[in-house]
Design a protein that fits this description.
By secondary structure, the protein is of the alpha/beta class. The chain has one domain: Rossmann fold. It is 51% helix and 14% strand. It contains eight helices and eight strands; from the N terminus they run βαβαααβαβαβββαβα. The strands form two sheets. The chain has a five-stranded parallel sheet, sandwiched between helices. A three-stranded antiparallel sheet has the order 6-5-7. A hairpin with a 5-residue loop joins β5 and β6. The radius of gyration is 17 Å and the shape is globular. It starts with a strand and ends with a helix. The structure holds adenosine monophosphate. The site of adenosine monophosphate has 17 residues, from α2 and α3. Adenosine monophosphate binds next to α2 and α3.
Length: 211
C-alpha cells in the first residue's frame, strides 16, 4: 500500500494516476470522492461542501468511516492513497484498517514543493467540468479544449483554488497535516521526494522507491 503525502498542489494526484496505471492498482483520492459526493448532492456532499470550499478539513469521524468503506471494497493487491490520512487521528486509525484487509508493506512517500510554487500551481489549476481532468495553465496555456475528453470551454477553477482559500489550505497542512509526516517517520521509513522537478522525473523516482 502506498501513501502519497504532501501539501495541496505538490502533484500527489498526478503521480497517483501515473502510478495507478503502471502498477494496475486503484488510486483512492478522498478529495475526488468528496467532490463526487458534492456533485451528486448526497448527504456527505452537502456536509462537506462548505468545509471544502473554505479549505478546511472534513471531520475525522466522517473521513475514517469513508475510508473504511472504500477500502473494504478494494482488492487486497494494494492501493494508492492520495489525500488520506490528513490528521494524526486518521493516520492512527488507518493502521488497523489496512492490517485487516492487506498484509502488504506500507510505503509512505512525501512530495515536497516550496509554498510559492504551490500557490502558483494551484492558482493556475483548472478542472474540466465534463470529465474532471485537471490541467495547469502554466503548461497548457490555451485551455479551450480538454485534452482528455475533447470538450470545449469546460475548464473551471475549483473554489478551493482561489488565492484566499489556497492560503488557508497551506495553513491547515502546516498545522494539522504535517505532524502525520513526523508520525510516519517515528514508526518507519518515509521517502522524501523533491517535487520541483518535471512530472516524468518525479514519477521515475517514485518507481525506483517502489521497486
Ligand atoms: P484534495 O483534493 O485532496 O486537495 O482535497 C480537497 C478537500 O477535501 C480538502 O481541502 C478537504 O476539505 C477535503 N478532504 C480530502 N481528504 C480529506 C481528509 N483525509 N480529511 C479531511 N478532509 C479531507
Amino acid at each position: 500500500m502506498i501513501i502519497l503525502f504532501g501539501a495541496p498542489g505538490v502533484g500527489k494526484g498526478t503521480q497517483a494516476k501515473i502510478l495507478s496505471k503502471k502498477l494496475n492498482i486503484p488510486h483512492i483520492s478522498t478529495g475526488d470522492i468528496l467532490r463526487k459526493a458534492i456533485r451528486k448532492k448526497t448527504e456527505l456532499g452537502l456536509l462537506a461542501k462548505k468545509l471544502m470550499d473554505d479549505g478546511n478539513l472534513v471531520p475525522d469521524e466522517i473521513m475514517i468511516e469513508l475510508i473504511k468503506d472504500v477500502l473494504s471494497k478494494k482488492s487486497r493487491k494494494g492501493f494508492i492513497l492520495d489525500g488520506f490520512p490528513r490528521t494524526l487521528h486518521q493516520a492512527k486509525m488507518l493502521a488497523p484498517i489496512v492490517k485487516e484487509i492487506s498484509d502488504e508493506e506500507l510505503i509512505v512517500i512525501r512530495i515536497k514543493v516550496d509554498d510559492e510554487i504551490i500557490i502558483n500551481r494551484l492558482s493556475q489549476r483548472r478542472e474540466c467540468s465534463a470529465c474532471n481532468n485537471i490541467i495547469n495553465l502554466n503548461y497548457l496555456p490555451d485551455a479551450t479544449k480538454c485534452p482528455v475528453c475533447g470538450s470545449i470551454n469546460t475548464f473551471v477553477k475549483r473554489k478551493d483554488d482561489e488565492e484566499s482559500v489556497i492560503k488557508n489550505r497551506l495553513d491547515v497542512f502546516n498545522e494539522i497535516t504535517k505532524p502525520v509526516y513526523a508520525y510516519y517517520k517515528s514508526v518507519g521509513e518515509v521517502h522524501l521526494i523533491d517535487g520541483n522537478y518535471p512530472v516524468e522525473e518525479i514519477s521515475k523516482q517514485i518507481c525506483e522507491i517502489i521497486n
